[in-house]
Amino acid sequence: MAAEIFVKKQTIDLRKKHIGPSCKIFFSHDPVKIVRAKGQYMYDEKGQRYLDCINNVAHVGHCHPDVVKAGAQQMELLNTNSRFLHDNLVLYAQRLQATLPDKLSVCYFVNSGSEANDLALRLAWQYTGHKDIITLENAYHGHVSSLIDISPYKFQHLSDDERNQTVHVAPSPDVYRGKYRADHPDPASAYADEVKDMIHGVHEKGGKVTARHSGVCGQIPVHKNVSSGLFIFQDMRLQEETNQKEHNNPCDTGGIHIAAFIAESLQSCGGQVIPPTGYFQQVAQHVRKAGGIFIADEVQVGFGRIGTHFWAFQLQGEDFVPDIVTMGKPIGNGHPMSCVVTTKEVAEAFMSSGMEYFNTFGGNPVSCAIGTAVLDVIAKEDLQGNALRVGGYLARLLEQQKEKHPLVGDIRGRGLFAGVELVKDRLTLTPATAEAQEVIYRLKEQYILLSADGPHRNVLKFKPPMCFTEEDADLVVGKIDQILTELEEALGLKLQNALSLENGSSKRKLPAEENGHVYLGALSHDRGSSRGLPQQAKRLRT
Amino acid sequence: MAAEIFVKKQTIDLRKKHIGPSCKIFFSHDPVKIVRAKGQYMYDEKGQRYLDCINNVAHVGHCHPDVVKAGAQQMELLNTNSRFLHDNLVLYAQRLQATLPDKLSVCYFVNSGSEANDLALRLAWQYTGHKDIITLENAYHGHVSSLIDISPYKFQHLSDDERNQTVHVAPSPDVYRGKYRADHPDPASAYADEVKDMIHGVHEKGGKVTARHSGVCGQIPVHKNVSSGLFIFQDMRLQEETNQKEHNNPCDTGGIHIAAFIAESLQSCGGQVIPPTGYFQQVAQHVRKAGGIFIADEVQVGFGRIGTHFWAFQLQGEDFVPDIVTMGKPIGNGHPMSCVVTTKEVAEAFMSSGMEYFNTFGGNPVSCAIGTAVLDVIAKEDLQGNALRVGGYLARLLEQQKEKHPLVGDIRGRGLFAGVELVKDRLTLTPATAEAQEVIYRLKEQYILLSADGPHRNVLKFKPPMCFTEEDADLVVGKIDQILTELEEALGLKLQNALSLENGSSKRKLPAEENGHVYLGALSHDRGSSRGLPQQAKRLRT
Q1: How large is the ipTM?
Q2: Where are the residues of the annotated region Disordered (chains A, B) (predicted)?
């Protein structure tokens, strides 16, 4: 196919006509038309190069020749479903398994992170015989209906009546802006205790829980092999079994009925949040005690991105093993594929329902060849090592920005997964949303692709292809420096007191609203120019 | 990658270790290892050729060079998400739209038939503000949790408590085995009236319907533009609007609250069922009158397979246009992709919720290049015409089998989508399940891949790659002839009375159970040999 078939205006018009208007585009008032890409660079129809700081899907670099070759060769040979034996499937499963703790040994291959997370819920419901799910504030787990239900990022504007009553939202373990901050003596325990309290809350209204989905209640011997696989307090198990016998239906019990806790190992859309170490262990303990399991969503952050480990849940320590890990975006470098990995016990409980699981495209030989090639490239080019090195370098550059710019409230991240939270005030943490959007927009004008996310859309999100270099980091941070300097000048912002009154530890009230108005005033003043910030913010919410 | 990495035994062992046991394999006691495929043929690790009569996913032929080339070239150039403008996306949407009625103009690209059907439900819930779904007996619409809920093929063994109470199952419009048969003067109306009655039933228990999913009730101006797009009785709309005003929540009304009727245009897993012409029109009328929309699932049967039309819903006549069409399997010749197409009105209502729809892999340039290449090959090689011609030839051959073999109860189909229903008795229609499994198994021993499905697993299912030839049809039907002859000899079955007492029209009681026992007896007698049928049936339920 030619690089360009339509002129840009035609492409836009056809898109308006034929593509669902809910499918948003970056920079909607002046979108970018990309016709080719290589490594960490994308090129528009005029040959202009963009530095790509956001596409974690193009994990080993856009159009990596090894991945393209593996896909093309297998496409020529065979592409069919997994009802036939094929070596690619088992080889790839074996290779993936080798990156995980031994217990996580059984794979289900599917086509997207959404399919993976939906299957994870089905596994949890079936294995536990329970229905209730605990999810985190601002979480995003996918676009199918069951996942909208567990994604506050999507459903938070809905009324209580419109939400799924079996889904419970725990506070985001955000030590910068959350309930317990960096100054708290033990934020991991504090946030985990919130989950524990939530479980008790669910228990108290236990009778309300009903089996609406297939495979929920009383269908299989609940926790048949649970003692061999999971951390369960035996006394509570016994109590539950007694309840089940009495009621002849585990859902009738006023007892334990959590199906799962699900969280991204590092929250991405939720604002690049890094949970405090030990949080997952404690949550897992509470959840397993309540008969539930722990699902770690690695769709955004897996496959070596964090540098020190292959999986982000491993940041919590070797003593932590989730019951289910879901994968997605980077797994096939853009090829539609993904995977759910779980324990033998969970897999056997799922099978015991008697319901076959068949996924037409999942685990086809092409997807598995591509997945294997991605693993090969990560190893061959030491991309995990690169993420550690370049990620560390990027973090140091960004820390310097924090020292210099009052708009920079927090720098956080691991490896090539980083967030820069912009605030109007380091004490009140008033989100600098319009400013974040302005940074993104001005970077785009300088051919750098970055995005802003989080509940306030004020967190600059770095998740570039893993071949990102120190030079790339210099380039993007240099540009950000310039933009922040200009913005702060326009806003009349100076560092001054802010540095001495560092964030988070303080509950002291400052005139936040007033400050907000001052800043907005400054921005309004700037609106006389062609780039009024509120307007930008609106058009940039892509 | 080498054609074979592991010896077959190792592949099987690794599969047992690392692949979810719910993922079934064909011929589980002696599965087939396929290493390459071309056109309508698959090849095992020893180079043995199999004739493929079942893989409708490999629509234009396994590994079609044009499709492989389009995919490989685009993979080299760019593979990224639809937040950037790309011509492949809009070109492909335009091409797909051209195959559909004008009203169906808005596309959402996703990764699988399951993602497509789940999105169709979300669109229906959002557009109508209602929740209840009517689905057909034996229907299968996908593997994500929302679709298990509407797939009796999957959930029918669950208890009432375990089923989703907002899902209602209408009788399958099967004129061979269903409630109204070929002898009925107007089966289309009779089956459609069943849906109408069901809607009234749903109305009567209206108060039970609650908004559990996001975007269900009161969130958008319900049916804002409905008059422009859909067939709606204005008086009922007015009544509904009045109810809404009174209750301030459309879900509180005891009035109209069907969200959608969903059906495969021709039921596949459900037993290759061809609904009588006019059924969809009448159902659509009833459903739209009740505020709902019509979803046609073309995942199995679309893209010219039926020969006379590009889409199977078009068999119902030009006056029938669904509100949503979902696509899948054949769309990318094996590449994981799919699409939902709907009207502008439905798409705008979905957008009006304010919730973005983003699908990471959906509509990427590689998928769109592949989809376009598939459309090109269908046209260039006149595969729709081939389906008509070869399908017609196959149907004639199969009709001859029916004349010859008492086990053949019914021949039905359109183009290269055909079903052969095996029965032990043409009057009682006792399913010849074990015999169907035996046919499949013996064909496999003769290197022909066919499957049996339907609620009784007694329907031989033909849905081969579209390049299937008359010689292929001769080969498979010749083998079936031999196998049926042998089976009937072993069972002592002769045509005799059966022919004169043709199926369906009769409610006359024959000693069905007795006949069944006679046949089972014959099979039991045969169990002394190495191929006892009940045993086969068990091992072949793959």
Answers
A1: 0.86
A2: 521-542
